[in-house]
Amino acid sequence: MQGWYLGRRIQGWLKLWLIGLVSLCLVVACQPSPPPSQDVTADCVTVSHSAGETCIPKTFERLVTLDSVSFEYAIAADLQPVGTTLSNFQTALPALQTDVANIGQSGEPSLEEILKLDPDLLVGLDFHGAIYPQLSQIAPTFLLNFEHSGLWKPIFQNFGEALGKTDVVAEKLAAYNQRVQELQNRLGDRRQDLQISVIRLYPDSITMYLQDSFCGTILQDVGLSRPPAQAVDAETAQAQFGNPIQAVLSEELLSEVDGDVIFVWTGENTATANAEAQEKLADLQKNPLWNQLQAVQKGQVYQVPSYWIGSGPVAAEAILDDLFTHLTDFFTETTTETTKL
């Protein structure tokens, strides 16, 4: 009898508990849904990139960039990374000479050195995809899609959107466009007839930088023309030369690099390679075919730093500086003698 009574009491308690639970669920269900900003990921934004998806912190203090390109984008976006890889490219641009820890040489970031910096965000180009699993274990990692350097503007905008710097990026691009307009005004309408040739000397070859290369896009923005052999868009260049931005040139075809002005650079990543490229330049200056070029005979050949191969807004501003220096007096036939080759 007592067992039966106890069983009835337990059943009653269970009914009361179930009624209370159902009532509680109904009350909760009737409450309005929390706004998206109150989601568990309210402190970060999920962004798709070349290696997948990453929830990028809205606030970060210890950014590490994995290469010189993403480092340049960070500096241009008014960020200060705590670490990056080092390259000769940075030495030519004072804005990139900051107090930053070295995590390795260009193209070879050290996971050990990155760990030492205790980063809260890692940013780099898509060619770091092979080590993305290890990088993402250290900190949230965002890898920028990077097809080629001529796409520097949309890549910079992508960087800004992902890291919450859209407004800063827009301001920097607007400042760039304003300087382009100033240079156009200085050169006048005749700039469209001014053919600008751009070549790079490697220790073992000569290449022409084409229409959609990094420096080529800046020349396009200013409204300058290119020699026919260099006025080749990225898609055509990829099909013809296997490279969207440059083409190897044999010395027998040196006439194809002629123009009203020739810009040339020899920048390499090692001192030895730099010395070899400089020797290549010295040999080129002795070549009769080179000395027959119109730009050479008129003293309109200028050696420029390696940032001409760059891929970001800091290098773009430096190239504009060079164009102001070497082109604004072109039509008055006055030049800066100390910079001529």
- Tell me the overall shape: globular
What would you give as the CATH superfamily of the largest domain? Nitrogenase molybdenum iron protein domain
Distance between the termini: 113 Å
CATH architecture verdict of the largest domain: 3-Layer(aba) Sandwich
Provide the structure class.
alpha/beta
Whole-number mean pLDDT: 86
Rg value: 29 Å
Give a brief outline of the structure:
This protein is α/β, with parallel strands linked by helices. It is built from 13 helices and 13 strands.
List the helices and strands and how they pair.
Layout: H1 2-29, E1 44-49, E2 52-57, E3 63-65, H2 68-76, E4 83-86, H3 88-91, E5 101-105, E6 108-109, H4 111-116, E7 121-125, H5 132-138, E8 141-144, H6 152-162, H7 166-187, E9 196-202, E10 205-209, H8 214-222, H9 234-241, E11 246-249, E12 261-265, H10 271-285, H11 288-291, H12 294-297, E13 301-303, H13 313-327
Parallel strand pairs: 3-7, 4-5, 7-8, 9-12, 12-13
Antiparallel strand pairs: 1-2, 5-6, 9-10, 10-11
